[in-house]
């Protein structure tokens, strides 16, 4: 079985969030299980990790002139092989700017989407299955399906869809006219690359079973619920829970903390976090998150008056300037600490040192933070949505139903009551640290899915 994963980011070469983590971990496990695995991603100007070796360069007339790149744009390809996985990075002029994402991303990923298959052909690579991830790979899936290849399309976050006005965007896709209408990638007068992936893929997956159900409803379907409901009825939509890279996130070997594997080591990590932020002896409630409405960070901020009498609160993240400003103001409070931006080493210390971890998400396709937190013995306080339902057992963490600050505060009160019962709390922590979130099971589910397409 040869599978080609197509994604806009892959850890450790490029990453902005959970998508990069998934595409960084799943292919390596699939390779270890015996599949031949290729990952294809753009060659960004700011590409990290190992420097790819130049594999091929040349003109690609298949891209045509509609993209404004000339009649035969120059393309270069780099390669890295590690962990049994072959990583291919496609270089195109639209990706020569620093950073991953920009305002003209629909145009950029239309160029990438048309380049992938011709590049693979030039390299003599013909996968059994093309597995695209999120809207940036939707056009690749459409072209692969039209070329007769088996295709899987994974939705990591339906909110982001890759939309552009139809008159301009349709010329960028390289698809035949019949594929551009309402039965193809057009949605509400726009080109929609997420819809392209959903429409043309043999099978569509999401990153948790609960999210697969949620997105067929108007509340979570982002305008695509009718299409997704049809896929579900046809048996073409399913949810496969994400795994966690348990080597990267292992408190027993983590180089960013004093490693531990028991309650005593956990207590030492909490003491170290309190000392780092100058916090008192109250329990520590933390979060590491994008500051965005989806993540419910406004709910956490609104709940702070109810939380701070009993909790220290530590927040690491960046995003919405209004939420950043609010947290900066709250950081004057002796029980609130805010570290703006993202800091990998600090994130590890927070996961290890916090007592509880808040995830008041309005929706959460899967979520990795709650898995990481439990692996480090930090008990999650989560809203009942998406992958949070599928991963947080009642005898470990704490859940609340409504996306309201009062509901979050009430769940934290329940959490505090358990914290004040040392036997109950220790049992929850020990169960959390024993949970298995490895990629082995999900990788086998994907393999079974691929084989069903052959």
TrEMBL record:
Belongs to the glycosyltransferase 1 family. Bacterial/plant glycogen synthase subfamily. Residues 2-228 form the Starch synthase catalytic domain. Keywords: Glycogen biosynthesis, Glycosyltransferase, Transferase. GO terms for molecular function: alpha-1,4-glucan glucosyltransferase (ADP-glucose donor) activity; alpha-1,4-glucan glucosyltransferase (UDP-glucose donor) activity. The keyword Chloroplast does not apply. NCBIfam families: glgA. Its EC number is 2.4.1.21. The keyword Transferase applies. It comes from Deinococcus gobiensis (strain DSM 21396 / JCM 16679 / CGMCC 1.7299 / I-0). ADP-alpha-D-glucose binds at residue 15. It catalyses: [(1->4)-alpha-D-glucosyl](n) + ADP-alpha-D-glucose = [(1->4)-alpha-D-glucosyl](n+1) + ADP + H(+). The gene is glgA. It holds the Pfam family Glyco_trans_1_4. Synthesizes alpha-1,4-glucan chains using ADP-glucose. Pathway: Glycan biosynthesis; glycogen biosynthesis. One of its GO terms (biological process) is glycogen biosynthetic process. It comes from the Bacteria. This is Glycogen synthase. It is an enzyme of class 2 (transferase).
